Amino acid sequence: MRQVRLTANFRRTLDNIDAFLQEAGTADAFVPLLRDLFDTVIPNLERFPEMGHDLFAQPAGSVEVAHGLERLHILRASLRVREYVLPPYLLLYATDEEAVHLLAIRHHRQLSFDFAGLWGDV
Q1: Is 90 helix (H, G, I), strand (E, B) or coil?
Q2: Is the residue at 62 inside a domain?
Q3: Whole-number mean pLDDT of the chain?
Q4: What is the dihedral of CA 10, 45, 78, 55, to 10 degrees?
Q5: Rounded distance, CA 122 to CA 118, Å?
Q6: Domain count along the chain
Q7: N or C end: fewer C-beta atoms under 10 angstroms in the chain?
Q8: Residues 4-40: tens digit of each pLDDT
Q9: DSSP conformation letters of 45-61
Q10: The CATH number of the domain where 16 resides is what?
Q11: Across the strands, what pairs with 56?
């Protein structure tokens, strides 16, 4: 069994989900997420660290993604970056010979764009 480690970024993205759920008026969904993570996801990853989809094996859907994946080629040599779907969340993690490193988690409705910042008061 491999040890599962939470990165600082993973903790930040959990905080972002908590804030997102509070803004959406569904703050009560955060505790079930934590329960699923600690009771199901982490034990599964300890036993089956390769269970998620290989992030690099999926075709790039855009030129930007293709360029981003090319820049990550150094990671490919030492870490296996994978994704775990826990509806409605997507979790990214990396594995090496000793551990599973939880990298990030996002709710599927969280946008990566700051539309308010882009458009101002429009």
Answers
A1: strand
A2: yes
A3: 85
A4: -70
A5: 10
A6: 1
A7: C
A8: 999 999 999 999 999 999 999 999 999 999 999 999 9
A9: HHH-TT-SEEGGGSPPS
A10: 3.30.2310.20
A11: none
Confidence at residue 72, expressed as pLDDT on a 0 to 100 scale = 65
Q: Which of 109, 67, 101 is nearest to 84 (CA)?
A: 101
Q: Which two tokens stand for residue 48?
A: 């089956």
Looking at the domain assignment, is residue 119 inside a domain? no
| Amino acid, single-letter form, for residue 46 | E
Residue 40 domain-assigned (yes or no):
yes
What is the pTM assigned to this prediction? Answer: 0.79
| Contacts of residue 82, Cβ cutoff 8 Å, sequence gap at least 6 | 50, 51, 52, 53, 54, 55, 92, 93, 94, 95
Task: Say which residue the tokens 């150094």 belong to.
Answer: 74
The answer to whether the Cα torsion of 40, 44, 49, 50 is positive or negative is negative
Single out the residue of 17, 77, 20, 89 nearest to residue 52, CA to CA.
Answer: 89
Residue 122 pLDDT greater than 50, yes or no:
no
Give a yes or no: residue 78 inside a domain: yes
